[in-house]
Amino acid sequence: MAGRIPLVLLACGSFNPITLQHMRLFELARDHMHQTGLYRVVGGIVSPVGDGYGKQGLVASKHRLAMARLALQTSDWVSVDDWESQQADWTETVVTMRYHYGLMAAQCHHSKDPPTNEQPASDVPQLKLLCGADFMDTFKVPGLWRDDHVEEVVGRFGLVCVSRGSRQPDRAIHESDLLSRHRQGIFLVREWVHNEISATEIRRALRRGHSVKYLLPDSVIDYIREHNLYTQESEMKNKDVKLRPLAMQAIQD
Amino acid sequence: MAPQEKTKLVLLACGSFNPITNMHLRMFELARDHLEDTGRYRVVKGILSPVGDSYKKKGLIGARHRLEMARLATENSDWITVNDWESQQSEWVETAKVVRHHHAELISSEDNDNDDVDTVRCGKRRKLEQNKSICQSSYINTNADTPQLKFLCGADVLESFGVPNLWKPEDIEEIVGQYGVVCITRCGSDAEKFINQSDVLYEHRKNIHVVREWVTNEISATHVRRALRRGQSVRYLLPDPVVRYIRDHSLYSAESEQKNADVILAPLQRYTSTNLESHTLHLDFHWYSLQTFNTMPVSLCGTWDMVSNVNFEGFMIALGIGLYTRKIALKLKLRKVIEQAGDRYVVKTISTFRNYTFSFRVNEDFQEFTKGMDDRHCKSLVAWEGNKLVCIQKGEKKNRGWRHWIEDDKLHLELHCEDQVCKQVFKRVI
């Protein structure tokens, strides 16, 4: 794949818990980006959100990290990163992206001689945000995103969005002037196999003692059982707490 | 809590498993949860029974691969197993027979059953122990210790009961009435409505357990094969060992998908008597799917010239044909012309001496008058048995009939009457 742009896919999210569907996103996105003929996917990063996000039912990040690591043990290109979850406060997605891009750029420049004609500085991989179609709808939620952040995520970096069930991300793009403006930075991947393993449903099944085998890797299921995660109690966590990004916005208003 | 008697259950799923996917495996898990939630059942075993190669479904790869992939997929399940009996049979086996076979196995192995894994629920959480220790239980299992066998399938299979000539009515009755069905539904499929609309299903509705799939999980094997052909990833749709196996053996190519493309699905060969030329049946459903077809096996139709004729004399004597006619007949080089006209088949036997023509619809009785041969009236019936077209001619002569089949590009014919068998072979002219 000579001459192609190296690309790293970054997925931010709760991963509460990580499911086979999350892992499918990476596989689908990689296939799609390769098929454009323009890109060569060189890595994938799972970045679980920090506990400060305040989402209802969110279990401690140390567990979510451990489960993600177990799930990705056998992957040779996707890894888990804990920087985001280690930050004191909830971190905007764009900040996480800037961090990872900076890291990659620094690594590239240290390992190379100064850029020459044959090896231009643009050997730093591009970083794109990988997400599902439901993520596109979040852009519509008032106060959840800052306009300049959306601009940066979609415009400067780029988005790879995997459609999910009947959700059509086209509509979300169409309904947003901001997104429409950066249409060329948004790659839509059509998932033909309807496979909507929602983590919410998984947690419900676990509370009820139902099987989640073949929806999560066995290693993750074992971990959940050993640590007795996902109970009635854990689902009530943050029940009365406002989602952090909304809380921050309220303060700023 | 008072001790309860629970019925032991074994779930049997038949299908192509071409290849097995996480969705197939999920079906077992969902079914078990549902049945055990009723408090009346204890699911002790699951059986995956891949169909044999003689099912002749388009794109069906060799049974040994499908078996091995299913084994790999279930190696870390402590209750789901793979069974090869169905795939080892030389001809396609009706589902009812497979169910019957496994039921008989259950009864006979009840005494020395070592694989009975106890999946008793403890409290609200199911604990799957790796070793086979029996969980502390307040449930008592009394006399009716033989597990019941239930047929596990997707809603599509239930709906396929309505497809003409895919199932024998008595088989449906047996599976639903005597054994019972556990049916996993998906969004967009209304199993209850279908049950309501079918008399036989409605009659046995108490034996049909409908399980709603709470995760939309439509990992169809067709999609998986398509992705593989296109070099796309199928990771996390199938268990990892299966993904590796497929890669190591280079299964599922454009070529493998064309296998059986011109062949008719076995059950349709066996049962059908409908207008095959003008009906194109194209149904795509979960574990059984029909390919589009509009002709009988091309192979039998054509013009064929005789190359060998063994024991024609013995056969004719059994028919009571006179010496003079026999002497002439033995010298003849016969030609067979087999044609299809709509849903009727016409078979002509042509020679310089006499011609004989008869026509029929498969599975439909017809009156036959063997004019010019032994001049007898028979009530004849032609049916498919596997890849052989078999005719029984009921009449004055006992054990009379014939069978046609293709082997090594030649048309074979076995004629029998009483204890005599005549074997003829023809090579294709056109």
UniProtKB/TrEMBL annotation, chain A:
Domain Cytidyltransferase-like: 10-204
Compartment(s) where it occurs, according to its Swiss-Prot or TrEMBL record: Nucleus
Cofactor list: Mg(2+); Zn(2+)
Record EC number: 2.7.7.1, 2.7.7.18
Main location: nucleus
Keywords of this entry: ATP-binding, Magnesium, NAD, Nucleotide-binding, Nucleotidyltransferase, Nucleus, Phosphoprotein, Pyridine nucleotide biosynthesis, Transferase, Zinc
Enzyme class: transferase
Record-linked SUPFAM superfamilies: Nucleotidylyl transferase
Pathway assignment: Cofactor biosynthesis; NAD(+) biosynthesis; deamido-NAD(+) from nicotinate D-ribonucleotide: step 1/1; Cofactor biosynthesis; NAD(+) biosynthesis; NAD(+) from nicotinamide D-ribonucleotide: step 1/1
Chemical reaction(s) catalysed: nicotinate beta-D-ribonucleotide + ATP + H(+) = deamido-NAD(+) + diphosphate; beta-nicotinamide D-ribonucleotide + ATP + H(+) = diphosphate + NAD(+)
Short name of one Pfam family: CTP_transf_like
Domain of life: Eukaryota
GO MF annotation list: ATP binding; nicotinamide-nucleotide adenylyltransferase activity; nicotinate-nucleotide adenylyltransferase activity
A Gene Ontology biological process term: NAD+ biosynthetic process
CDD domains with a match to the protein in the record: NMNAT_Eukarya
GO cellular component, as recorded: mitochondrion; nucleus
Record's subunit section: Homohexamer. Interacts with ADPRT/PARP1.
Family: Belongs to the eukaryotic NMN adenylyltransferase family.
Protein name: Nicotinamide-nucleotide adenylyltransferase
